[in-house]
Hints:
Layout: H1 3-13, E1 21-30, E2 35-44, E3 47-52, E4 63-66, E5 71-74, E6 76-81, H2 89-98, E7 101-107, H3 109-114, H4 117-127, E8 133-138, H5 155-162, E9 167-170, H6 176-180, H7 184-195, E10 199-202, H8 209-217, E11 222-223, H9 229-237, E12 241-245, H10 253-262, E13 271-274, H11 280-283, H12 288-297, H13 302-308, H14 311-316, E14 334-337, E15 347-350, E16 353-357, E17 360-361, H15 369-381, E18 410-419, E19 425-435, E20 438-440, E21 447-453, E22 459-466, E23 474-477, E24 485-489, H16 492-505, E25 508-512, E26 519-522, H17 534-550, H18 558-564, E27 573-575, E28 579-582, E29 587-591, E30 593-594
Parallel strand pairs: 1-4, 1-5, 6-7, 7-8, 8-9, 9-10, 10-11, 11-12, 12-13, 18-22
Antiparallel strand pairs: 1-2, 2-3, 5-14, 14-15, 15-16, 16-17, 18-19, 19-20, 21-22, 21-24, 22-30, 23-24, 23-25, 25-26, 27-28, 28-29
Helix pairs in contact: 4-15, 5-7
Amino acid sequence: MSADEMRRLMAVAKREEPGDVVIQHATIINVYTQELMEAHVAISGKRIAYVGNDLPPLGDETDVIDGRGYVLSPGYFEPHAHSTLFFNPATFAEKALYHGTTAIVHDNLALFLSLEPDRFLEALDRFASYPVKMFWSARLDGQTADASIVGKFSTEAIRQLLAHPFVLQVGELTDWPRLFGGDEQMVQNVLSSLHVGKRVEGHFPGASWKTLNTAAAAGVGACHESMTGEDVLMRLRLGMYATLRLSPIRPDLPDIIRQLTAENMFWSNRLMLTTDGPTPALMEKGLTDYLLQTAMEAGLEPLVAYRLATLNPATYYGLDGELGGIAPGRLADILFLRDERQPRPVQVMAEGKMVYQAEQLQVTMPLPEVIRLAAEEAVGDKAPMSDEWLVPELFTLPVPPSETADGADTEAVFPVIQLRDAVITVGQLETFVVREGQLDWTGQEGLLMASLLDRNGHWITNGLLRGFARRLDALAVSFGVSGDLLVLGREPSAMAEAARRLIHLGGGAVLLDGQGDALEIQLPIFQSMSDKPYAAIAEQAIRLDRRLRAAGYPHLEPIYTLMFLPATHLPYIRLTSQGIYSVKDRRVLHPARELQPDKVKR
Length: 602
């Protein structure tokens, strides 16, 4: 705010000058006192100047809004968003604005790993022009056992990120064991955030009191991984903020609300709400507005609920002087609701401008050109693999000759990955017949070949996966956290074909199930994001979801199963560049197979 803007703001507050916008006869959700309040609101430029019972003066150019029939809420604040799976941060922000979310803290991982540092910072500057406040978390690890990217998270790189005003914290700390073990890079990166007054966000699902104590001692200020009411209380008792979650793979919010209500819990001002990583299927129901509706239906009082979605996250990030409430000096991010029990807005104001009304967005938020350019260059740098190289034999499990007897059928033990739910895996050793030097698994119900394939053609990790689908010829995707190609299926020839199609598509998903037309989804932005409008990519993602469920997928969210199969921050068995990998003891159970790079077109 400039000196002239402050003088003008005070003049409007004193009712000496007319506001640019005046909302008359409104009912306001006062999140500071948790009450409904009748008041007029005067706005000067981007900020609220006056809230009170005296009617503000009007000028010839004052935009007068009749507030009767509306309840005004502060814009919603999403404190923890993953916005780079299928959609991109721009299309995510447009959808969020439609649902009343005017501030978002995004996970930076996908863009940070894909962009050079100067380009990433340029992208943040471009995002800062949006009517939605685009804040960022700086990740400290890549979620995979890939040593080649550790340097991306150097102390110098993280300090450079933290110098940007829209980077609010480091985290989430998916590789917290390294921090607890005293790893120098992790310790220094956490300290870098604390030393400049910024936050550290944890990632502690199922954590014990001991683990949470250690996290709090290290400066962790919040965790979004509570799965029960008791989890919430443990975090609060140790001084953390607890972020209550309703996501595609952790729909815990209503149960947590009911558990805490049954305990007659005091609704702490250290609670927040998050959608975590919503898929298009969940976003069709809403974002923070859907969380609020769900929380109210589970028994949370509306005036308490709105505080969790507005003032509390703003306070946590030190932004409550700018955001989180309808009060003088704050940015005029105001939602027009029909009723406090109906959190889906009918109109949205951001920084004093009406940006959503009559069921239409009034603004556009184009993806920064620096991201488009970098994505195009990345595609150009990746010469397609030859079709001759992607052969069915790639998707087999050869057994070394030393483990067979004179070419006769024998048996071998192999670690099978079993899906316990959408993202948690366990391993179990199973015995298979070996025929003609190959592990024969095809007669077993519910098993799929699961292959992680280096997009440069240097290696492949082949495994067996149980619990994903019963009927699936082939599925190839490029949006896993490791950035490699993941190919699942029962038919090696179809798997090779799906991989070929995916390579030539430039990233996305290809499904071949023998039951109908092939399903192809193009994700050209770093092989994980679409450049299409939200509605178009949502329709494609929902089609993929339906096809996989028809093939027998039994869990909550197939997109996240596929995304996290290479993720070494989750238990227990994963596909990595090293091979089939045990996360707990950091041990390779079955090695990756090296491939011949001379058979890859350069």
